[in-house]
Amino acid sequence: MPDHAVTLECDGRRRTALVHVPEGQGPALRPLVLVLHGRQITGADIRRWTHFDAVADEHGFVVAYPEGYQRSWNDGRGNSPAEQDGVDDVAFVGALLDHLIGAFPVAPAQVAFTGLSNGGVFCHRLALELSERIAVIAPVAGSMPVPLASIRPTCAVSVLVIHGTADRSMRFDGRAVGLRGRLQKRLFMRRYRPGKPMLSVPATLARWRTIDRCLMDEPLPPLPAAGNDRTWVERQRSGGHGGTTVESWIIHGGGHTWPGGPIMPPLGRVSRQFDAAPVIWEFAASHWSAAAARRLPVD
Questions:
Q1: Structure confidence at residue 25 (pLDDT)
Q2: Could you tell me the CATH number of the domain that includes residue 22?
Q3: Distance separating alpha carbons of residues 250 and 112, to the nearest angstrom
């Protein structure tokens, strides 16, 4: 399948992304999913771990893998090389969207972001600051930084949160990372230092429900047991403004990992109860809404 290397100049820096466009006759304009890598890994790594190319080939959407600055994103926590060096990653993503919409058969109203860890946290920032351009986010192992919680976006955004209760690197309860988590981070990161406070996963979901003006929570049926990884998945959904949804897939016993992805023992259990990429695509595909339909009333 054809792949395209994209290079942009943004804020005086050379930025890159890899774009995968499925072959065959599809719609004139296709949805776009951007997959953000975590700290100390690359776009090529997250591409290999998530298998999004295969999902894109099956369903006919365009998938892009941007590269962060020094393998990191300015996600609002204050502790990544990108943020410490003043990199404007929101501007980069905006410029990348402009380029992808102009150069590839991409539907501007059908844009979704997903990411792991640092990339998942960055999804929240992008949705808050670029809500008119992003219909869906699906952060994996990434909650919302407290400093971002006061931002009021102009449009509601559909949100699928996937997070493990045994995540020691991005704690489910939002508390500061303990000694074991700090040791894990130092194994994988250069220039590591503790960041700004994080919301818990329940508080992150509550913040998005408030933003999207959700009315009530609806529990979803549990997933049937699969594999032997000793995790199980609790799911919940809330309907919001303009047809948006806030949904959670809480992996009991899951670590700081991508469900269905590679086993990395220092980061905890990898759930085999589901494969995150097709789940994220299915969620995104049912929540495409133009910005006008998602625009929030001014209080």
A1: 63
A2: 3.40.50.1820
A3: 20
**Structural domain boundaries, residue 45:** 3-294
Residue 83 belongs to some domain of the structure: yes
Flag whether 299 is in a domain. no
Name the β-bridge partners of 232. Answer: 252
183 belongs to a structural domain: yes
**Whole-angstrom Cα distance, residue 163 to residue 249?**
7
Cα torsion 9, 16, 85, 127 to 10°: value is: 100
Residue 64 burial by Cβ neighbours in a 10 Å radius (0-12, 13-18, 19+):
buried
Say if residues 288 and 68 touch (Cβ distance below 8 Å).
no
Spatial distance between the Cα atoms of 273 and 231, rounded to a whole number of angstroms:
7
Convert the pLDDT of each residue in 232-252 to its tens digit: 999 999 999 999 999 999 999
Query: Are 114 and 140 within 8 A, CB to CB?
Result: yes
Q: What confidence score (pLDDT) does residue 213 get?
A: 97
Asked if residue 61 is part of any domain, the answer here is yes
What pLDDT, on a 0 to 100 scale, did the predictor assign at position 299? 74
If one counts the domains in the chain, the total is 1
Which residues of the chain fall below pLDDT 70? 1, 25-27, 178-194
Amino acid at 97: L
What is the spatial distance between Cα 73 and Cα 120, in angstroms, rounded to a whole number?
A: 10
CA distances from 54 to 6, 33, 144, 178, 222 (A): 20, 13, 29, 37, 26
159-208, pLDDT tens digit by residue? 999 999 999 999 999 998 754 555 555 555 555 556 789 999 999 999 99
Cα separation, 250 vs 236, whole angstroms: 9
Q: Using a cut of 0.85, tell me whether the model's pTM lies above it.
A: yes
Whole-angstrom distance, CA of residue 111 vs CA of residue 285: 10
